[in-house]
Every structure is written in structure tokens, then in C-alpha cells.
Amino acid sequence: MDFVMEIWGKAKSRQKKLVLPEGTDARMLKAAKMIVEERIAASVTVLGKISEVQKLGGDHPNVLKVREALAIVNTCAFTLAQAK
What we know:
By secondary structure, this protein is α/β, with parallel strands linked by helices. It has helices at about 5-15, 25-35, 50-60, 80-84; strands spanning about 15-20, 45, 70-75. It is built from four helices and three strands, in the order αβαβαβα.
């Protein structure tokens, strides 16, 4: 078993929540879709401005179709006061 498959197997068995930064990067959305479809994590959260993530998802229509385990967190709405 190669290294990547070993890591995937461990992740699949542990079913953790996963947060992917840079949700406006098409590669992150594709990774999120693959992770959800392959059930590598219990849920995936993508960080980024919601409108930009959804627009990018529109450019790749199959990416955002898996919604039950995929969340988008609007990083632009987060303020320092909320962090306290």
C-alpha cells in the first residue's frame, strides 16, 4: 500500500471534519467534492467569500452538487470582535 492510500484509509476510518482554505481555488472545490464523494471525512468546510465560491462552483457544476456534507464559511463576514 502506498503512502497516499495509507493516509486515505486512516482518514476514512476516523471520519473527522475537514476545513479547506482558499475556497475560491478550483482545486480546493474539486478536492472537497472528491473527499465528500469518497467519504474520506465526515464533513468538509470550504473557507472563502460565499458569492465567489458559488460562482466558481457554477463554473464547475458538478463540484458543489454534493451539499449534505459540504459547508461554505464566509470569511469576509468574520470580524475580530467575533473572535473574542
